[in-house]
Write a structure and sequence with these properties.
Structural class: mainly beta
Distance between the termini: 79 Å
Shape: elongated
Radius of gyration: 41 Å
Strand order of the largest sheet: 47-48-52-51-50-49
Helix content: under 10%
Largest sheet: 6 strands, antiparallel
Strand content: 35-45%
Number of strands: 52
Low-confidence stretches: 519-649
């Protein structure tokens, strides 16, 4: 199959015409081959077009709904509005109704039922076959050929499946069905062809076209392809199917051999034309460079370098037919990624170098050293490979699955990763490799699930996650116990002379609490450039959450009033002005606070005067930007006055 040939699927035939799906449309073509023409021009996914028994109509599935259109051309009509996925047209009933599968109204998508859909748009009726994966009605007879519930995909999508959901064939009438044969394979596309039944099966290795009598005897194979035969249908005497995007026709089940139908599309091939796509929708891996100014990212198999601000985006590798992945930024502005150009995976560098990785499994993870001189690759076969220069070197290999989470030390001399040690329970340990001599050391015991290792900035400790905290708790819904918080972060020292930051110190720990950096805990005079100015008799300092306060009563007065603290937003005013400003007009604000000199008037404080003291600015630095004066209504005027100065931070 060349690039200019169509990829045809879901064929069906009637008389001298064949219909099929290609480029998201339904097509018609002569059965002997030739140029095809479109029946639809919706360019939406379509499946399973089927001719009506008289050959005048075609029914198909579009966006999981049943649609019909005349063969001679004309607008199509939608017959169903199920709104359920996996609906499929199977053919037509003798009453000229569309035979379709759907799980509409059922408990799950696995409960597919055969339904007859009338052409007048009326409701579909369930057929008495129960839960099935396919139905073929006997032409002119009462029997039905049923395919039991299938895995939901074609055998070509789940090759050589042998589980309990593999298809099985049954024949009979409602209430009396019998198993046809016991083939150990996945069966699909049941059909009646004359006196025989035909189907697709991969019990012999690759899916081929087979036939037998309805009782299962005289089993024959009619095709021999390298790829799976798919989507087989019949008009009662002939069989047409798809293999590798090509249409094949079998004229009879006796002595005929399959022949290829040379069909050509008559359209412009718009589905094959390049078109712009949204990079954000197809964004893959992203790696940020060391200085944080740009990133290397993968979009639809292409590698691009994108600046974060005021710069262009340039393609490092964007070759059609080549898939690049796992990009990593290197120190100094370079980049490296995994490429399948040439058919084999290899490491490609932005400077044009290419290092083949032959003999190892598929690369699953990639890590680069901080100096950019080494690259570590983790493969699906459990290999841990170090690439230094132009030659890969095997460091370690696991027999129990893929290694994960590679990380280099800050000096680029060590590599750590999570190594699987037992497949049954998923146990993993951390291993450390010296890149100078290749010696591998087991850091943790193979009894837990250790993952995500990372070096500290000085390279003396290793932080990682581990499932090793077994502290069971009772479940709130069932009588059982569980381990809800078993995965925790841990820290490991890498040298014998490195002390744990959580352990005892050689000199012990100092007594008492450490000194606080909070300005409220410091001596106000030590940070007060004008402290001497306010050190007068009767002055006191009071600490609060908003700063230091200084209050001074007049000599000879008897302060009996309890002063309430005024916070940054308590006065409702933030004064701002330049140095030497004369201040702003006074502002009044009513407030309530209890006066200790009067029990009958708990709200004795009447008003505060808040103003600007003159030369200090709240913006230019510490000082005394404003003061408050208060008078108690029940105390003597001389006793109730108090000047309060707030110290700003």
């Amino acid at each position: 199959m060349t690039a200019g040939e169509p990829y045809s699927r879901y064929p069906h035939l009637h008389a001298d015409l064949v219909t099929f799906a290609a480029e998201d449309d339904v097509w018609l073509a002569p059965l002997d081959g030739g140029r095809a023409w479109r029946l639809t021009a919706d360019q939406v996914p379509v499946t399973n077009p089927r001719f009506s028994p008289d050959g005048t109509m075609i029914a198909w599935t579009s966006l999981d709904e049943v649609r019909v259109a005349p063969v001679e051309g004309g607008p199509s009509r939608q017959l169903t509005y199920w709104g359920t996925p996996r609906s499929a047209v199977l053919g037509w009933t003798p009453e000229n109704e569309v035979l379709a599968l759907s799980h509409a109204g059922r408990m799950s998508r696995a409960h597919q039922w055969a339904r007859a859909v009338p052409l007048d748009g009326g409701p579909a009726r369930d057929l008495p076959y129960g839960r099935v994966g396919g139905v073929a009605l006997e032409p002119g007879g009462p029997r039905a050929l049923l395919l039991s519930s299938s895995p939901g995909v074609e055998p070509a999508h789940w090759k050589r499946y042998r589980g309990g959901r593999a298809g099985k064939l049954w024949t009979g009438v409602p209430g009396a069905f019998e198993r046809v044969h016991g083939l150990d394979g996945n069966i699909a596309a049941p059909m009646w062809v004359g006196e025989r039944i035909a189907f697709l099966s991969d019990h012999d290795g690759v899916g081929q076209l087979w036939s037998s009598l309805p009782d299962g005897s005289e089993l024959r194979r009619h095709s021999d392809h390298e790829f799976y035969a798919r989507n087989a249908t019949s008009d009662g005497t002939r069989v047409v199917y798809q293999c590798a995007g090509e249409l094949w026709l079998l004229d009879d089940l006796e002595r005929a051999e399959p022949r290829r139908l040379p069909v050509r599309l008559g359209g412009s091939g718009s589905g094959r034309q390049p078109f712009p796509v949204s990079a954000g929708r197809f964004l893959g891996a992203v790696s940020v460079d060391g200085d944080g100014r740009s990133s290397v990212l993968e979009v639809r198999g292409g590698i691009h370098q994108v600046t974060h601000r005021d710069g262009p985006a340039r393609a490092l590798s964007a070759v059609p037919g080549v898939r690049n992945r796992l990009p990593k930024a290197l120190a100094g502005g370079g980049a490296v990624w995994v490429s399948d150009a040439g058919g084999e995976q290899a490491l490609e560098f932005a400077d044009g170098r290419r290092v083949p990785l032959e003999g190892f499994g598929r690369v699953e993870e990639l890590a680069v050293s901080p100096d950019g001189a080494r690259v570590a690759t983790l493969h699906r076969d459990g290999s841990v490979v170090l690439v230094e220069g132009d030659a890969p070197r095997l460091l370690d290999r696991s027999e129990f699955g893929e290694c994960s989470d590679p990380a280099f030390s800050p000096d680029s001399r060590w590599l750590v990763w999570s190594h699987p040690v037992l497949m049954d329970y998923g146990l993993r340990q951390l291993r450390l490799a010296s890149l100078a001599d290749g010696v591998v050391t087991e850091l943790t015991e193979p009894r837990f699930k250790d993952s995500s290792p990372v070096f500290t900035e000085d390279g003396r400790q290793l932080a990682f996650l581990s499932l090793r905290d077994f502290d069971p708790v009772y479940d709130q819904h069932v009588f059982d116990m569980s381990f809800p918080v078993a995965d925790r972060p841990f820290l490991m020292t890498l040298a014998a002379d490195t002390l744990s930051p959580f352990g005892p110190q050689p000199g012990g720990r100092p007594l008492g609490k450490p000194a606080s950096a909070d300005p409220a805990s410091a001596d106000p005079a030590s940070s007060d450039p004008d402290g001497d100015r306010f050190r007068r008799p009767g002055s006191t300092w009071t600490a609060s959450a908003t700063g230091w306060w200084r209050s001074r009563s007049r000599p000879g007065s008897t302060p009996r009033c309890v002063r309430s603290a005024v916070g940054w937003s308590g006065s409702g005013i933030r004064w701002r002005g330049g140095s030497g400003a004369a201040g702003r007009p006074w502002s009044r604000r009513r407030s309530a606070a209890r006066c200790s000199g009067s029990t009958s008037r708990p709200g004795g404080w009447r008003r505060w005067w808040t103003g600007w003291t003159g030369s200090r600015s709240l913006v230019t630095g510490p000082g005394w930007p404003w003061w408050t004066g208060r008078r108690c209504g029940s105390c003597p005027p001389t006793a109730g006055r108090r000047r309060t100065i707030r110290r700003t931070r």
